[in-house]
Amino acid sequence: MPIDKKAARRAFDRAADTYDAAAVLQREIGQRLLHHLDPIRLAPRRMLDLGTGTGWAIPFLQQRYPKAQIFALDFSPAMLRRARKRGTWFRRPFCICGDVEALPLASNSMDLLFSNATFQWCNDLLQVFRECLRVLRPDGLLLFSTFGPDSLKELRTAWAQVDGYSHVSDFLDMHQVGDALMGAGFAQPVLETEYLTLTYAGVQDLMRDLKALGTRNATAHRPRGLTGRKQMQRLIQAYEAYRTQGRLPATYEVIYGHAWAAQSQPLPKGNCPVSLDWLR
Predict the structure, then answer these.
(1) I need a labelling partner for 57 at 20 to 30 A (CA). Which of 38, 139, 162, 239 fits?
(2) Helix (H) or strand (E) holding 78
C-alpha cells in the first residue's frame, strides 16, 4: 500500500515532542546498527544521517568520526528543529528538510549514509537506493535498517478481523531489499534480519506508543473516519488471542543492510557484463 507522505509528515510533526520518550525500539535498533560499523575501516569527510528524526544518532556518529562533517535530513520540520540541537556547541549538524526519494544534495558529496528505521516510509525503494548511490562518493558506504513484512503482524491480523481497510503499512522482505540494492548499482551488499518483540499490558498501550512515535497509519487506503468504540472493542478482542504470560506481543522484523558505492573501473579484457535479471 502506498504511503501518503503528507499524512506521514503531519504525524511526525505532531509527534516531535513525544518521540524520544517512546522510541525505545528505535534506539535499540540504532545501537545495533552502529555496531555494524565496528569492523569497517572508514574515514568519512562528510556523512549524512538519512531520516534523522530528532537526531538521536548524531552524537554517536560524531564521536565515532570526530573529523567528519555531519548532515541530517528529514522530511519533518518539527523533528529537524530538535535534531539541530544535537552535538556539541561547535559541531552542530547541518540540517536539511527533504525527501529521501529525491535528495537535495550534490552527486558524489557524501562518504557515509546512515539511515535508521526510515526506508519503510518510502514508496519506491529502488529510487531511494539510486539517490543514495548518486550522492555517495566512490567507495562510499550506505548503512541502514528498516522493517520487514512480519513487523506488527499481530496488529495487522487483528485489524483484518475488524474491517477491510489498511491499518498497518506493508513492508518489503529482505530479498526485495537486496534486489533493489543490486538494481540501483550498489556493490557487495550484505543483509541480515532479526526479530525483536515489545510487550504491552493492552492494545491501547501499543496504540499510544505508535501515536507518540508518529508511526500512525499513513497508507493511502487507510480509513478516513475516527475509530468507533465498537471497532476498538473488536480489535481488542481479536488481539487478545496473542496474549502470553499476561502480556500482548508486538513483533518487529528488523532488516540491517550495508553496501558500497563501487569505484568505476574498466573491465579486464575478455569479460562481459550480464544482467542479473537475465540470469534469473
Answers:
(1) 139
(2) helix 77-83
Per-residue pLDDT tens digits for 31-83: 999 999 999 999 999 999 999 999 999 999 999 999 999 999 999 999 999 99
Q: Considering the entire predicted model, what is its pTM?
A: 0.88
> Looking at the domain that runs over 5-148+171-197+253-264, which CATH code has it been given?
3.40.50.150
Cα–Cα dist 71/62, whole Å? 11
Cell numbers 483484518: residue:
160
The helix/strand/coil state of 96 is: strand
Cβ contacts of 51 within 8 Å, gap of 6 or more: 73, 74, 100, 115, 116, 117, 118, 119, 121
Backbone phi and psi for residue 193, each to the nearest 5 degrees, phi listed first: -135, 150
Residues 6+ apart with CB under 8 A from 240: 248
248 DSSP β-pair partners: 200
- Outline where 97-254 has alpha helix (H): 125-135, 153-160, 174-184, 203-213, 229-239
Instruction: Give the three-state DSSP class for 211.
Output: helix
Per-domain boundaries in the chain: 5-148+171-197+253-264
Contacts of 37 (CB under 8 A, 6+ apart): 64, 143
Buried b (16+ CB within 10 A) or exposed e, 103-120: bebeeebbbbbbbbbbbb
C-alpha cell at position 109: 558529496
Percentage helix, strand, coil for the chain under 3-state DSSP, each rounded to 5: 35, 25, 40
DSSP 65: S
Contact 142, 113 (CB under 8 A): yes
CA dihedral over 186, 64, 118, 69, signed as positive or negative: negative
Query: CA-CA distance, 25 to 133, in Å (whole number)?
Result: 28
Contact between 79 and 13 (Cβ < 8 Å): yes
